[in-house]
Each structure stands twice: as structure tokens, then as C-alpha cells.
Amino acid sequence: MEVFLFPLVNVTLFPRTTKPLNIFEPRYLAMIKEAAAKNIPVALGYIEDPGKVTSVKPGEHVPFVREIAGYGTVQIIEERLNGTLLVFLQGQGKVRLGKVLESGTPYIVCEGQILPEKTVLDHSAELELTSLYKILSRWVYTHIHDPSQRDMFMRHLNLPEEIVGSFASYLVRDYDLQQMVLEYDDLNEKIRFLHRLMESNELTT
């Protein structure tokens, strides 16, 4: 499928999570408005090294972002008087980024191959998922002080994918490790990986 690419440093979008974004650069303001109007998915490209960001031509692959990216739909929450936007990018899945397409736009439009994932929870991973949920819950009640926001956050932790994505987004301090979680194709592997990180104290406080 065709995706709009939004490259960012140290940002990963997980399926079934929502990423708030402040948009202020003119080319990305145009991209977000078109994506919202035409329901075109936006892929959040993980920039490995901002020093290697280069121009890219149609027919080439984007050299400065990871090949695997989370993608989602755009919801414009607020358009400010200065023209900047607050948007929610609602994660739907992940794609393998392909070649850049000829678009005539100041932003990158490229091919995106949807990558299927195994999302059925194995019985052997249930206890580890429960441990992740308990730690995430404690983090929520410690760091989100507004009761309504806290309750809304907790209401969106029903499915294993939602727990895993939120846990990786908020409790894994290393951004490269977050991207590693995204790139696993099996929900159970993600759970076991996060559980190992928890046991090795590789989490935020």
C-alpha cells in the first residue's frame, strides 16, 4: 500500500497504541492534513542516526530509517492559531518500507508492505503478560495523576497487544530496544523479551 513517511528520532509506534504528536514543520503539516482528509496511513519511521539523514529520490529506499515501521491513521485533535497541529496517530500495525514513490510532494511517500503478526497468546506466556500488566499499572498510578486520564489509559489495556505496546512505549528506556520489540513478529516473543528486560532492570523508573 501507499504510506506517508514521518521520520522521527527515537520514536516507535506500536499497534493498538496512540502516539500524540505536535506538528509544526510546513511539509509535515501538509502531509498530516492530506492523510487525515484522504485516510492515507502514516508510517512513523525510526531514525537511527540523525547525522545520516539525506535526500532520497523516487525509486530508492529511504536510507536513514529502519525498514520496519509502525503505521496508523491520523486524527487531528487541535489546530492552533499559529497553524501548528496536535494530532493522535493511532497504531494499526507495521509495514516494511519499500521504494519511494514519485509524488510531487515535499514529504516522502513510499511503498509499504503490511507485515502480519501472530497475536494469539500462548498459555506459556500468560504469567509473564500478567507481570507486565501489574508493573505497567503501577507506573500508570504513579505517573498519571489526573484520575480521568488515568482511568481512560487503563480502559485501553484490555488486549495483550495493548499491554505490550504501552509497556514498551512507556517503560523501556532504550529506544533501540523499543524498536526491537516492534520488529518481533510474534506477540509471545515480545512478551518474553519485555519480561527479560524487566528482570534485568532495563526499564525506566
TrEMBL record:
It holds the Pfam family LON_substr_bdg. It comes from the Bacteria. One of its GO terms (molecular function) is peptidase activity. Keywords: Hydrolase, Protease. GO terms for biological process: proteolysis. Residues 3-202 form the Lon N-terminal domain. InterPro entries: Lon_prtase_N, Lon_prtase_N_sf, PUA-like_sf. PANTHER family: ATP-DEPENDENT PROTEASE LA (LON) DOMAIN PROTEIN. This is ATP-dependent protease La. It comes from Bdellovibrio bacteriovorus.
